[in-house]
Amino acid sequence: MKKILVGAIGAVALSLSAPASAADLAARPYVKAPPPAIAAVYDWSGFYIGINGGGGSAHKCWDFVDSTGLVTGVPGSLVGEGCHNATGGTVGGQIGYRWQTGQWVFGFEGQGNWANFNGDNTSAVFLADRNRSRIDSFGLITGQIGYAWNNVLFYVKGGGAVVGDKYDIFDIPTGVLVASARETRWGGTVGAGLEVGFAPNWSVGVEYDHIFLGNRTLGFTTPGGIAAGSDRISQNVDMGLVRLNYRWGGPMIAKY
């Protein structure tokens, strides 16, 4: 009985001392909450300059202008000589400016390219002649509207275009140049592209462009400068380009 009483007294004493011991412990230190996560947002605003390269095809149709009526009996009528695709490569550069508001991106751009789009066909009117076309340069002046998902930008573009053309007529049996003509033709263009920013100021993308150039009547001359008749030539161009741009202004910004 005595042992039971002593044990009970000890248990009560231990329970009374526990809160006091807990009170003597040091208070838990205050830990500051971590800052909110910061997501990097790519800003497309600023001037940019770049290079491009790719390939294209120009669809061209030639119609002989029968000014005297010798072929058709009707002076001034047109006679189809046939069509061909002038295909080849191109390389050039572009410079422009973009500004971003929200996820919308607006801009304007000037582009100039060297090209080597060649093609030919045998004339359906003059069977001994081969008509050859070549585009050796072109330029685009366009506006852009795009939509950005951080560092990915999809855009459409449209504006004016100018193309440098050369046309030659060769005698098939001998390969001798019979007549030629040159022109600088203006038209319109539309296109679309997808661009990805892979560094704060660098982006790479792909672009498709279509150039509308309509019809134009050209006078041909022989190598000696003698007039050699006229053809109405229609043409449209399709191109695919890979582009690399460097941008300055509008660096990466932080968004909470």
Describe the protein's architecture and organization:
It is a single chain. With 256 residues, this protein is mainly β. It has a single domain, classed as Porin, CATH 2.40.160.20. Helix content is 9%, strand content 69%. The chain contains 1 helix and 10 strands; from the N terminus they run H-E-E-E-E-E-E-E-E-E-E. It has an 8-stranded antiparallel beta barrel with strand order 2-3-4-5-6-7-8-9. A hairpin with a 6-residue loop joins strand 4 and strand 5. The longest helix has 23 residues. It is elongated. The N terminus and C terminus are likely disordered.
CATH third-tier fold name = Porin
The first-level CATH class name: Mainly Beta
Please work out how many helical segments DSSP would assign. 1
The largest pleated sheet is described as: 8 strands, antiparallel, barrel
How far apart lie the N and C ends? 72 Å
Architecture (CATH level 2) name? Beta Barrel
Radius of gyration: 37 Å
Mean pLDDT: 87
**Silhouette:** elongated
Helical/strand content category: mainly beta
Major sheet strand order: 2-3-4-5-6-7-8-9
Low-confidence stretches: 1-25, 251-256
β-strand percent reads over 45%
Helix coverage percent: under 10%
Number of strands: 10
Q: How would you spell out the order of helices and strands? A: HEEEEEEEEEE
